[in-house]
Amino acid sequence: MPRPFVATAAAMVVLAAVPFAAAQPGDPAAGFPDKPIKIIVTVPAGGGVDTVTRIIGEKLQEHWGQPVVIDNRGGAGGNIAAEAVFTSEPDGYTLMASQPAPITTNVVLYKKLAFDPAQFEPVVIMSKIPNVLLVRADFPARTGQEFVAYVKAHPGEVNYASQGIGTTSHLSAELFQTLVGTKLVHVPYKGTGPALNDIVAGHVDMIFMELASAKKLHDAGKARILAVATDRRLAALPDMPTMEELGVPKFVSDTWNALSAPPRTPHAIVAKLNAATNEVLNQADVKARFENLHLLPGGGTPEQMGRFVKEETKRWGEVVRAARMAPM
User: Fold this and answer.
1) Which of 74, 96, 237, 229 is nearest to 167 (CA)?
2) DSSP E strands: which ranges in 189-314?
3) pLDDT tier at 296 (50, 70, 90 boundaries)?
4) What is the pTM of this model?
5) Residue 246 contacts residue 229 (beta carbons within 8 Å)
6) Which one of 133, 138, 162, 320 is least enclosed by Cβ atoms within 10 Å?
């Protein structure tokens, strides 16, 4: 089952820049980068992963004096982008920015993948984001308590959006159904932007969504946050109850996004990418932008990211199996 949000965040929010040794003769990282770097993003433009990648990409471009090109390839739960990066040259010039699914749960959600998630080279966790329950503006339930009562009384009548099959928004709703004892109807999208557009338009009822994007809609009156999916209330929404306060025990959902490199990318290049990203995450203006977006900065070493990804794969894999979700 999911671990408490604060403990998870504490384990991964490492803000100290990671030093690295100067490149030695014959080192594959010597002179890196000396041409543009492409970051393939696993979701369409406008989502949380895309936003964070563009912030970091802009700063890496300044840091290196080389263009950093953002290439959005949404769809198939991130598999389209993941396959493209997996088969790219392992030279550090093509990277993947992803939500958890392509490097964690897709391996248990799809019968066949054209890549092995475990073979990606971890670079760094870019950010971590608490999730909230967001409903369309005219949803009948006006409070979190009313929402839980409503979905229990109307099994199979409430639909929920997700950023795609296997994404945190999808698996959070599956976990919620199991814990509450009801049935929701899944409406998958190809990323955050399309899903939120239909929430605002009233075409779908709800979504478990990252705080940053959800709060903008909530504050503008275009949708409503009814609860937070963390283990305690959030400073940004002090009056909003946790799911546990609403009688949904052990419901904790957060998400994160990360940079990964193709298999067999030399360790020296991964270390250089990691060190530069850590340096960016420590810049005062980046910290301020993240705070404004209600994001927790990531950071840490590639080894820490590798261990974290394994833990998350186990965590959400258990949700998939408990929900008896048949591989696609």
Assistant:
1) 74
2) 206-210, 223-228, 254-261, 296-299
3) confident
4) 0.77
5) no
6) 138
